[in-house]
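Dear all,

This email documents one entry for the complex benchmark we are building for the journal club exercise. For each entry we list the sequence lines for every component of the assembly. Then comes the predicted three-dimensional structure of the complex as a C-alpha cell string, followed by one or two observations. Please use this as the template for your own entries, and keep the labels exactly as they appear.
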Amino acid sequence: MITYIARRMLQALVVMAAVSFISFSLFNYVGDPVDNMVGQEATLEDRQRIREVLGLEDPFFVQYARFMQNALQGEFGLSYRTKRSVTEMIAERIPATLELVFVSALIALGLGIPLGVFTGINRTSWISKAVLTVSLVGVSLPTFIIGISLIYIFAVNMGVLPSSGRAGTVELGGWKTSLLTVDGWRSILLPALTLSLFQVTMILRLVRAEMLEIMRTDFIKFARARGLPENRINYNHALKNTLVPVITIIGLNIGGLIAFSLITETVFQWPGTGLMFIQAVDFVDVPIMAAYLCFVALIFVTINLVVDILYFVIDPRLRAEGGH
Amino acid sequence: MSLLEFKNMTVEFPTRRGVFTAVQDVSLSVDPGEILGVVGESGAGKSTIGNAVIGLLEPPGRLAGGEIYLKGSRIDNLDEDALRAIRGKRIGMIFQDPLTSLDPLQTVEQQLMETIQLHLKQNDEEARASAVSLLDRVGIPDPKIRIKQYPHQFSGGMRQRVVIALALCADPEVIIADEPTTALDVSIQAQILELMRELCRERSVGMILITHDMGVIADVTDRVAVMYRSRLVEEGPTEKILGDPDHDYTKSLISAVPRPDVRLARFPVVEYIESAGDRRDSIDVATHWLGAGQTESGGETMLRVEDLHVRFLTKFSFLKKNRIYLDAVDRVSFDIRQGEVFGLVGESGSGKSTIARAIAGLYKPAGGHIHFAGADLTEVRTESEMDRYRRQMQMIFQDPFSSLNPRMKVLDIVAEPIRFHGLASGGAETRQIVMDLLEHVGLGAEAARKYPHEFSGGQRQRISIARALATRPRFLICDEPTSALDVSIQAQILNLLKDLQEELGLTMLFISHDLPVIRQMCDRVGVMRHGKLLEVAETETLFESPQHEYSQHLLDLMPRLEVLSHELIAGLEMAD
Amino acid sequence: MAVQQDEKKPGLWARLNDNDIAYSFFHSPIAMAAAFVTALIVLSSFGAPLIAPFDPFDPAQISLWDGKKPPAWEVGGDPAYLLGTDNQGRDMLSTILYGGRISLLVGFAAVFLGMFLGVALGVISGYVGGWFETVIMRLADIQLTIPGILTAILINGILRSVLPPDLRDEMAIYVVILAIGLSDWPQFARVARGATLVEAKKEYIQAARVIGLRPALVMARHIVPNVMRPVLVLATIGLALAIISEATLSFLGQGVPPTTPSLGTLIRVGNEYLFSGLWWITFFPAIALVVLVLAVNLLGDWLRDTLNPKLR
C-alpha cells in the first residue's frame, strides 16, 4: 500500500518537475524578459546591468534552481502586461474557474452516470436508443458552438439570462463566490450548462460501454445460471464492477472540465483562469503562461493521485498486489 | 420417470446467411445419481444443449422445438421468473473457466451467501454455516478463513471447487457441467472429476457432463451420448459405447483417440469426418528440391542441450538484487540423436515449451549451451551466422488459428522463409516449390491463392507444416502441434508428421502434455516438472517401468481407456 | 484459363454481400447516409475552386458594397449570394467551401501525424519492450490524463509564443497541425501497443522470428498490418476530434488567421456580428462544421461496432 502510493507520488513529482522545466524554458527563451521591463530607449549597458541583477547571466542550472525555489513558494514574478504579481492574479481568478467546474461536474455526473447505467442495462428500450442518438449529436457539437447557441437563444432572443460575465459575487473569507445570489446563479447557469453538455454525453457513452463489457463476462453468466434476479445482477455485480473504470471516468471528466473551461470562459467572458491564459497567449505574457502551466499540471497530478488511491480502495486485486 | 428429460430438442440460431441449427432433434434423459456424458467434437452442439435446458441461450439462439421436463413437469415453456426459480435452485451449472466465473470484487462468502439466502431463505447465521460446510465438503482447507477471501486469492483448481460449491449450494437436483476440467492441469482435473462423481452419488444429483475428452468420459460417466453435427448419433451405457459402438462416427472417433496402452504404426484414419488429406505422393522426395537439403551430415548427435537455464523476470526493480526471477528451465541437459523423435512431457508450467523456444532462439538462455549441427548456438554472435542454423531448424506451433498471419495469402506465408533465406532462384521457382509443398502436406496447390481464414484448424496446421518445411530443415520442433485440434484431425496431422519424418529423415523434438500422443510419436521421452528434467528413457521403457515417482504419478493419471474396443482397433489396423 | 477463373468467381455484389463489413455497411442506412454526407463535404471542399460561385480570396471579386447581405430567401437577399455575405462582402457559400477545405486539411494532416507517431512508437514499445516502452508509455499515460484539446491549446500557445510575431499568421496552419497531432499521439500509441502485445504473443510472429526475420521486418510486415483495424477506428473518431480542435483553436483566435479562414475562424468572425442580428455569418459555418463532425462521428461509430463485434 505504502509503496504503491509512494510510487504514484514519485511519478507525480517527476511530472511536476518536467512541467516546471517547460515553464522555465518558456520564461527564459521566449522573447527577452529585459525587453518587457525596460523601454526601447534603454542602452545596452542598462540592459546588461538589469540582466546581471536579475541573474540572467548565471549558469543555466542556477537559474533553474532559483526558478524552482520561487515556484515552490508560489512566486512566478510579474505579468508583462499588467505588471501585477502573477500569483495574485491567478489566486483572484481561481474561485471563478473552480465554481464553474464544480457546478458543471454536478450536472455532468448527475446526468451522465445514471443515463449510462440505464442505457447499459436496458439495451433494447427505445428510450436508450433515443438517448444514444442524442448523445452522438452531443459529442459532435463543439463546446463553443453550444455556448454561442445558448447565448443566442437565452440572451439575445429571449433575453432572460446574461450573455457574459460573472455577476452577483459575494466575498466569503477571501473567496469570491457567485453561488449565494440569484444574479450569481443566473450568470453561472449558461456557462455551466455549456461546459457540462459535452461531458454528459462523454460520461454516458463511457459508462454504457463499461456496463456492456461487464455484462458479457462469465461471472455474470454464472450469476444468471444460479438464478440470481436481474436487478441483483445489474446493481450488485455489474454496477460494482463497472465502478472501477467509472472512477477513472470521473477523474477524466473533471480534467476535461478544466480543459474545456478555457473555451467556455472565453465564450462567456467568464473571469476565470482559462480566459486569463488565452489572453496571455495573445499578448505573449510569458509569466502568466508559465504559471498557468504549473497550475494546471498541479490540478491534474492531484486528480490522478486521488483516482489512483480510490482504485486501491475499491479493487481487492490491486490491494493484494500492493500488499506483497 | 426420469429426473431431467428432453424430447426432440431443436435449437436454432438465425443469422443473415440463413438459420443455423445448433441442436437438431435430440432426446436425452438423466436419472438421480447418474452421470450422463455428452461428447462430441467442436461445433457438434453439445454446449448449446446445456444452455438451452436452463433457458440461457445466447441471443439470437432460440429453442425451436421439443419439450424439456424436470421431474415430469414441463419447464421449457415457463416464463422468465419461473425459470429463474429453477436456475441454481433445482438445476445448477458449472462452466469451463474457473478464472472468470467468479465476481472478482466480492468475497467467496458474499457470493455463496447471496445464492444460499436467495434460494433457501436462511438467515445470515445459517447461511454462513452452510457456506462453510459446503466449502469444507468440496475440499477447500481452512474454509472458515478462506471464505473471507476474494477469488483472485485462490488457485485455478481451488476456484473450480468454489464454483462447484456455488452450483451445489441450493441443493439442486441436476447439475450441468460444461467442460468443467478443460482449463485445468491433468492432476487437478483428476481430483475435480473425482469430487464431482462423489457429490453426485452422495446427493443423488443427476449430472450432465459436457466434454470433448474421451478420457473424462471413460473415467466418470455412467452413460454417454455422442453428438455429431448437431445431431445425437448414439447413446447408451459408457462401456457399451466405448467398447462396442454401433455408429460409424463413434467407431471412427474412438479409433482416433491416441491409445496409452499400445503403440501403433499409424493412426487409423477417420474417414467419416473429413476427407482427410489423402495421400499425396505427388513429388519424389529423392529428386525434388525438398529432399536436396538432406545430404549434409552432422554426426550422431543432432542437438545437445547442456545445463540449459532460462529465467523470466517476474518483478522488476531498479536494484539488481531486488529483482525476482522465475526459473522456467532449471539446468536441463539432454541429447537428441540424428533421425529420432525426442519427446518432452509435463504439465503446464513445467518448462517444456520454454525449452523449445530457447532452442529455436525465441528466448535467450541465462546459462548453458545448445549445440546444434556442430556449433554452440549460445556462442553465435552475428545474425547472418545464426541464419545458417535457423534454416536447418524450424518449428510448428500449437494454435493453428494464431500461427498464420491473417493478412497474408498462403502463398506468401509459405514463400516467406524461401525468399528470406534465398533458397530459390526466382519468383517462378518459389511459386512452384510452394505449390509442391502444399500438395505434399495434403492440401491442393490452389490453396496458395487463399487466405488462412478460409481453412479449418487441421488444414491450417498443414499450412504451418508446409511453412516449416520450406527452409528444408533437418530438425523440426513440434510444440503441442495437435493439442488445439479435435481428435479426428489430430490423428491425421500426427500421421502426416510421422510420414514426413520418415521420408525426409527429420529429427524431431516433440512436445506434448498428452502421454498417449507421446507414446505414439516418440522414440525417447523426457519427463519435466517445475523446470527440471526428471527422467529420460526410451518411450516403451518409460511406459512399462517408469523410474521417477512423478513419471509414475503422471502415468497413473492417464485416463483408463481399457474399455475402448480392442477388436475395433485391431480390425482397423488390419484394414489399414 | 483466365476466363474460366472469372466464371468461377462470384459476382461483385455476391462478394460484397459475403464480406461482413460491406454487408453491415449496405444494411445500415445511418452509415450510408454518413458516408454520403462526408464524401459530399470532402469532395465539394476540395473541389471548391471548381464549384464555388466566387473566389473569396480574390480581392477583385469582393466589394464592401455587397457586405452583410442576408441569405437569398430573406428580405434584402441577393440571388447571387445564396447564403448571404459576410461583413467584408464575401459570399458565405464560397467561404464555407474554402473554409471547409482548410478544416479538413488540418484535420487529416493532424490525425495522420498523430497516427504515424503513435503507431510507430506504440508498435515499437509493444514489440521491443524494455526501458523504451516504459518511458514512452509513461509519457503517453501522463499525457492521456490531460484532455487532448487542452494539450493542443497549450502546445499551440507555446509554439506561437516561440515564433517571431511576423511569422505567426503565416505559420499558423502548421503550428495548429503540429499541436493537434502532438496532442493526439498517445491515443494511437496506447491502442497500437495494446494490439501489438496481443499480436506479438501470437505464434505467427514467433514463426517469423524462427525463420530469422529481423525485428524491423517483423514489425513492418507482420505486426503493423494486423494492428491497423483498431487504429483506423480511432483515426476516424480522431478526425472528428481534430476538426473540432482546429475549429476551437481558430475560434479562440489561436488558430488559422482570418486571411485564410477555416470554419472555426468564420464562426469566430461571425460571432462578433451575432448581437447585431447578422445570424447567418455564424450560423452557416457552424451548421457546416456540426454536420461534418456528426457525419464523421457516425461513420466512426459504425466502424467501431462493425470491426469490434464484441461491443455489439
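Observations: Chain C is about 75% helix and 0% strand. The longest helix of chain C spans residues 92-128.
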